Amino acid sequence: MYANDGFRELDRRECLRLLAGVPVGRIVHTRGALPAVLPVNFGLDRDGAVLLRTSEASELVRAIDGAVVAFEADEVDAVAHAGWSVVVTGRATVVGDPGEHERLVRDGPRSWVPSPREVFVRIEPELVTGRELTGGRTRYGLDPVP
Questions:
Q1: Which of 11, 38, 90, 129 has the fewest CB atoms lying closer than 10 Å?
Q2: Distance, CA of 31 to CA of 24 (rounded, Å)
Q3: Tens digit of pLDDT for each residue in 25-36?
């Protein structure tokens, strides 16, 4: 977080609570040595790990398996000048354990674009950060310029 940007910093528990309430976020990874951002539906595991469910043959799986990635989700009210943003940074890995895979088939996120051979990608929450702006008011007490 940037110390003087006027937003309220969120703790880890607040971040995970907010993430649990939205269905879509963005995965940030490297593609061809450049940053790439892709919207994805997701779920959270019991320990706060971000879970993606996608085709075993997807380019995304090949690009992120074993890599450090960022995952971002947010909610914004442009009229009220309010919202929040949470970023989870950690290593992404394809779930290889058959028992864990079966548990996630039952309890994990559902793919919005199902495929015959799906895998789960787990992003370990090594760093969880978030910030919030409520009603357009910053910690400086100034209203936004109309």
A1: 11
A2: 21
A3: 999 999 989 999
